[in-house]
Write a structure and sequence with these properties.
Two copies of one chain form a homodimer. With 369 residues, chain A is an alpha+beta fold. Chain A has three domains: 113 residues, DNA Polymerase III, Chain A, domain 2 (Roll); 117 residues, DNA Polymerase III, subunit A, domain 2 (DNA Polymerase III, Chain A, domain 2, Roll), CATH 3.10.150; 121 residues, DNA Polymerase III, subunit A, domain 2 (DNA Polymerase III, Chain A, domain 2, Roll), CATH 3.10.150.10. In chain A, the strands form four sheets. Chain A has an eight-stranded antiparallel sheet with strand order 6-2-3-4-15-14-13-10. In chain A, helix 1 runs antiparallel to helix 2, helix 3 crosses helix 4 and helix 5 runs antiparallel to helix 6. Chains A and B meet through helix 2, strand 9, helix 5 and strand 19 of A and helix 2, strand 9, helix 5 and strand 19 of B. Chains A, B: Forms a ring-shaped head-to-tail homodimer around DNA. Chains A, B: It is found in: Cytoplasm. Chains A, B: Keywords: Cytoplasm, DNA replication, DNA-binding, DNA-directed DNA polymerase, Nucleotidyltransferase, Transferase.
Amino acid sequence: MKLICAKNELLKSVNISLKAVSSKTTMPILECILIDASATEITFTSNDMELGIETKVKGIIEEKGIVALDAKLFSDIIRKLPDSDVCIQTDTNLNTTITCEKAKFTIPGKSGDDFAYLPVIERSEGIEISQFTLKEVIRQTIFSIAANENNKLMTGELFEMKENILKVVSLDGHRIAIRKIELKNNYPSRKVVVPGKTLNEISKILSGEVEDQVKIFFTDNHIVFEFDDTVVVSRLIEGEYFRIDQMLSSDYETKVKINKREFLDCIDRATLFVKEGDKKPIIITIDDTGMQLNINSQMGSMNEEIDIDKEGKDIMIGFNPKFLIDALKVIDDEEISIYLVNPKAPCFIKNEEESYIYLILPVNFNTAR
Amino acid sequence: MKLICAKNELLKSVNISLKAVSSKTTMPILECILIDASATEITFTSNDMELGIETKVKGIIEEKGIVALDAKLFSDIIRKLPDSDVCIQTDTNLNTTITCEKAKFTIPGKSGDDFAYLPVIERSEGIEISQFTLKEVIRQTIFSIAANENNKLMTGELFEMKENILKVVSLDGHRIAIRKIELKNNYPSRKVVVPGKTLNEISKILSGEVEDQVKIFFTDNHIVFEFDDTVVVSRLIEGEYFRIDQMLSSDYETKVKINKREFLDCIDRATLFVKEGDKKPIIITIDDTGMQLNINSQMGSMNEEIDIDKEGKDIMIGFNPKFLIDALKVIDDEEISIYLVNPKAPCFIKNEEESYIYLILPVNFNTAR
């Protein structure tokens, strides 16, 4: 095999491929990027058996061939090369020479025979949204998936199509995040659960541009994202996702409109007194004079008042400040509405159209105090 | 005590004070910043018993007093306050209330009675250089002090005054870094060894501006840096520093002029094949065709050629690539000169005026291969 590619093209493709390279595996071939130049195009493939990525690389094939190279070493070499044309050439033992200007690297290659190629997926009924939208939707929901694997379904996100709406849901037992996107067409009803890791990795590859599109296809076991020169295939998480509709009520006793920035900064200051792993709640008191935030810990105490627009009853309620911060950070609105029922019922942060809904369970602050 | 200071002034002074706060100590008072507003000025003092810093803070004293506050908590609070005037007030129990706009923090304070004030140092015969120069000199030498404390003197840097020259030297047994600065006046001969930690911390506080000056005073046991509104006092390291003059010879068999950037980039690429803790040398071959760099490891091999101007004999010599990289990174010259004698003798990288000299011992590459 002999290829000539610009350093920048290689680097772009290598960075994309790295997202699906296994870091801890007993199969060394999964630590490789497969370079396939056996036909008319150069493709890089990586696959950690849950997530697989195939991306096309611009370049010239001077001699056809296939080789698998250690992904970390290959990417480190490409990254440090001068900004010029790079020649990648294998000998009969798959020893691979990478030459750029006067620098010449030689590393061992592996045959592609053992490589786990991506499954062949029949694409039908794909939805199409902008890369910007997909990236935003992931950012605005991914923080509330569960970190541990006790409940596999909680480590993923529900993607639900219904008519012309894509609904994305994540939850971890303490909170729920929901984003709704309007699609251009109507689609048959469908629910799948996509691994959080897949979404994290894909959002790093997406350009985030409004004009760039991404096509999404579904099969029984896989989800496929197609964009630019790249195809990402991920396994789905099996099982039926949680029924969240019964948790979403539109009744409330107190409604508060508040400046998001002020609220977020104030909670952020309060967390100074919360040590890692500590379950110290922030206590919010809402009455006709405004909203008051309090936190008390061994280290000290803080209180601060914020102006609000209030409708309905007075209330005093406690929250894990992290859960409020996580939700507030991803909301782009300057002013937000908070809906409360009583100190033991979840609060909702949502907009009028309900294009986003964040549900957060309160903390019993009398005992926690 | 009651003070009013702008948030930014407080933050600046807190950040300076933090550099001399003990992180691991059995004396909680050393984890504090002492706020002294007992007279007409506000000063913050911190002292880890080796390094002490006193800095003046702009602000208004409404009620005189002294309090010691936990440095980390105090700095975290100041950092997160809105950009406005801050009121710091203590009650009779030294509980301290920090108020800024509508935010109000309360933290416990300590009396200043147990605080280790800075030693009173008589200032005489101080040298004066620009903050830029001092910061540069530290940056260009600090990397070659020894990391471990086996030999205390190697963890510091020699500051030697002689006539109108300040010479700064660091060494770790494998290499020596020397910088010479011309002073405005002549000074009596003097040698002191300044702890590396002191120099690291002070270079973080220095503005680095050419117009800003720093005065340096010496006593038998201390060095004092005075600049802006800040005084830094550090203990010196006791003992007689190594005699390096006998190691510095101006004889050479081979002299090479080389583009620094090219040389550095090339060695940087070669280090891809050097794992952490590995003693793999880079082998440099110099002959009439140029300089060739080679590295061989289990992971693979690299070689690269660089154009040079050569005088004298051909040579093949091995180096720890890290030592070359460390020196090359801090040299500002575009083209550098390397002086070599034989594969077992140290190489010198220095300029004509010898305002900088880097000595690096070679590695025996035949056995290491």
